[in-house]
Amino acid sequence: MEDRMNYFSFQWHITDECDQRCKHCYIFSGKGCSELKSMTWKQMQEVVANCEDFCRIYNKLPYFYITGGDPILHPDFWKLMVLLKSRGIPFTIMGNPFHLDDEVCTILKACGCEKYQMSLDGMRSTHDWFRKPRSFDLTLEKVGCLNRAGIKSVIMSTVSKMNMNEILDIIDEVVKAKVKVFAFSRYVPTGGEVDTGMTAQEYRKLLEVCDAKYKQYEAAGCETYFNKKDHLWTLYEYETGQFRLPYNAKNGMIYGGCNCGNCHITISSNGDIMACRRVTDSKVANVFEDRLADVWVCQMEKYRDYDKFVKCSKCELKAWCRGCPAVADGTTGNFYGADPQCWKTKNDITGEVL
Questions:
Q1: Residue 236 lies in a domain
Q2: pTM confidence score
Q3: Domain holding 291: CATH number?
Q4: Domain for residue 203, yes or no?
């Protein structure tokens, strides 16, 4: 596959239908959550065409993260798989374990599925409380189906105050199950419930102990790749000497950090275009009413005004980190507010207080 830098990514929710009602799910929080939506087959074809047209303008190729709900529950799911295969569009599925078996995974691989992402949000009792009874065991069981089919198995954990002390045990479980990729991201509050959040120092400690465990497994030849997805990993690695500011970095350039407004768009089940699915009020347009190329240079611009970041704009890591604006927005209502788990207090180059 070509370098991922040649791709523009779309997180595409084709349906809200799901076998679970996870307690931290953004789909079932807030107003209107009882009205489950799904795209029609005609609408899904329109989305593919719109995304291809957009990418053509920027000389990029589309990459889809197909999700829901559980996307496999959509009545036209397999028709979409065949369409993506015919168009040569690679994709990842972000779904549940409940409808996977060896045959399904083999067909997914034939359709071009590169990765299949599932969730573990704690050890057995915690995860099953968050999601659904028996889902912990089933998730680890289905890793084998994906691996046998040649699809990269991905486990993602959502970290909060409630399960932060179980992350090390989750790492042991995913390694034992031969998961190909593991990562975690932080819980995003949907109603200002800040009590679920970790303190900045608690989160830094979590990164420290996870980093140590990752290194132990890597030294032992572990086949699991530990994806340091959360951008605060950049801050941690900067402080510990694992990341250094490039000597040839140009002022005003963005080299990493949050992809919101940069190289990623979310399309919801009713066609709404969102800067980030975890920022609940980030709708900018609708894919059936607006041209993606126009949305990108107009409505999306307000999400890449990097000098507006209250804290990050004064930090020497602005071009590589910026924490998680979704967590800031969910906690304070300000997308450009300070990330509540960022522990940095001053710019180490200028001495400016952050």
A1: yes
A2: 0.93
A3: 3.20.20.70
A4: yes
